[in-house]
């Protein structure tokens, strides 16, 4: 199924705004001006991660491929950490239950 036709579960005010206006490709870029410093910070983070891209001065779109790649990068980092943490917790638990 093409990326644009998938159901997307993306949180956040800015991503929701871009998805609602179908700004998910360079040709669909929309004019966007953050309303407050919090939105500006969120936009800056999304731009730094390459998820929101600017095509022309003040026109942006939400790059779905970059968004899903960022999720996959976080998942690849979280799984080993979770495994190590669970092994450590198990080791500590068995240490306390030794008679």
Describe this protein's structure.
With 99 residues, the chain is mainly alpha-helical. It has helices at 13-20, 37-48, 64-96, and strands at 30-31, 52-56, 59-62. A three-stranded antiparallel β-sheet has the order 1-3-2. A hairpin with a 2-residue loop joins strand 2 and strand 3 (59-62). The longest helix is centred in the C-terminal third of the chain and has 33 residues, at 64-96.
Helix content: 40-55%
Indicate the structural class. Answer: mainly alpha
Instruction: Tell me the fraction of residues in β-strands, as a range.
Output: 5-15%
Strand order of the largest sheet: 1-3-2
Low-pLDDT runs: none
Report how far the terminal alpha carbons are from each other: 57 Å
- Provide a count of the helices: 3
Count the beta strands: 3
The dominant shape is elongated
H and E order: HEHEEH
Radius of gyration over C-alpha positions, nearest whole angstrom: 20 Å
- Main sheet? 3 strands, antiparallel
Please state the average pLDDT score: 87
Write the layout of secondary structure elements.
Elements: H1 13-20, E1 30-31, H2 37-48, E2 52-56, E3 59-62, H3 64-96
Antiparallel strand pairs: 1-3, 2-3
Outline of this structure?
By secondary structure, this protein is mainly α. It is built from three helices and three strands.
What brief labels describe this structure?
mainly alpha; 3 strands; elongated; about 100 residues; 3 helices; three-stranded antiparallel β-sheet
